[in-house]
Amino acid sequence: MNELLTPAEMSRADRLTIDAGTPGIRLMERAGRAVADATAFRHVLGTRVLVLCGPGNNGGDGFVAARILAERGYAVRLALLGDRSRLSGDAALAAAAWRGATEPLDGDGVVPMLAQAGVVVDALFGAGLARTLEGEARRVVEAVDRSGRPVVAVDLPSGIDGRTGAVCGAALHAQTTVTFFRRKPGHLLMPGRAHCGTVITADIGIPDWTLREIGPALRQNCPALWLDRLPAPRLGDHKYSRGHALVLSGPALRTGAARLSAEAALRAGAGLVTLVAPEAAAAIAATHLTAVMIEAFADAAGFAALLADPRRNAVVLGPAAGVGEGTRALVAAALAGRAGLVLDADALTSFADAPETLFDRVRGRPAPVILTPHEGEFARLFPDLAERAVGDRPKTERAVAAARRSGAIVVLKGTDTVVAAPDGRAAINDNAPPDLATAGSGDVLAGIAGGLLARGLPGYEAAAAAVWLHGECGRRAGPGLIAEDLAAELKPVLADLYRRAALPPAEPPPVAIRQEGPTLPPRRLLVGSQDEDEPGGTD
Ligand SMILES: NC(=O)C1=CN([C@@H]2O[C@H](COP(=O)(O)OP(=O)(O)OC[C@H]3O[C@@H](n4cnc5c(N)ncnc54)[C@H](O)[C@@H]3O)[C@@H](O)[C@H]2O)[C@@H](O)CC1
Ligand SMILES: [K+]
Hints:
20 helices; Rossmann fold; UDP-N-acetylmuramoyl-L-alanine:D-glutamate ligase
């Protein structure tokens, strides 16, 4: 269920289902019913409903939802953008089955309609949004947003690009978004995610086999992607069998970042963690660390000697390491060895002038390398793929292009962190609370990734698991958290995961609608029922 479908892939899923014998109007009927259910769940009978329909099939879903809500006794007003005679296909069938008035929709006329409405169903544009909103369409969207009325969005909040999450000129903010079959990248990527509210994914009868035909590359980051690679500690394990991570410390007054990483690596399950530090820094770190060991080195050759033991199978470099030739030499020494690497912060910025010299050493290396840049560091290594350089190219594509170029797993951090592999796999993370935007948070993430590499996870799985665990730790630590709080939260988070992994696979839920997000209590949504009447029935 963690596949994400671009609008083009979703349209293919629709087409495959229709070609296999399910009429399009039946899919639309179920889609509209799911929207009606979600609206009725939140808004009691007596609430005045304003349904705003666009010229395509998103509008068709709106006509169905309007009809079903009216049948249930809601006072429903419906307004259509554009000429009714230009509706075609399933949308025309759905419109023909709507018995109420169809009012014209424009930026001025919608204002008094909004004043009377208790809830707005946004069926203006969904997967078919093809260009920047202008003219009346834009004025309507802006008027709805200004009104502050609660919005139930059909498929996507109008104005959000389902592939990229971008705002196309203007976009609504929904309280609830009802999408179909699988979520779209635009529900998870920013700023789209901030426009969606609670996302409900409704089953409209598209079979799972369509996914095999489509082969979507994008996933939501969740334990199903990597949990089988992260087994609970077993009887007979000893500390050496759980791996040994090394974490490079910065100079004497900058040891904190590496200490955060080292403790996180240990909590993530590495059997041993050693902080490796210049002499003066080692003495300072020693006053803070207990379970984490410490070793000092004098220069790059001394550092390389510390890596020679093959049991030292993971290295974290970068947090507060310092930018320049010294760090470059240490990174080169680590890349020459056989351990898995996490390169973060200063280890990335140190290669800003010559990123190819880094990538040349990464490509073809048998052990994994994980790069963990935020957008600023990413722009230094991949200036042509930076956010401001690429127009509407989504974060997922930028991260995959960077992974292919560098040969590394790329963790492009942010509210919507993307983990990408050189083979094209990519996952979008959506469990990180904004509280994680705090000093040292990235050091903890790098440490978790290093700890998981030490445990033997492959690079992509280690990176994706680290990002998800980091997010969960942030959620548990809650508002007011500081980076020091995070690693200890790995204990309950891992305990939950191991418990979950030990359980037999869950039965499918008894309802046909799944919801993501915090606001609605589970299980009370109405089921997309089997007795759809099909207006203008084509079968
Ligand atoms: N059989 C299907 O394909 C199904 C489709 N479904 C619904 O259909 C939607 C997709 O339908 P469509 O492909 O018709 O696309 P939409 O209905 O999202 O939008 C397409 C229409 O909007 C116009 N348009 C696009 N961008 C515009 C802009 N910036 N300004 C003004 N007009 C613009 C296009 O010219 C076209 O008329 C989904 O989001 C979903 O809600 C669901 O009913 C499930 C089944
Ligand atoms: K919409």
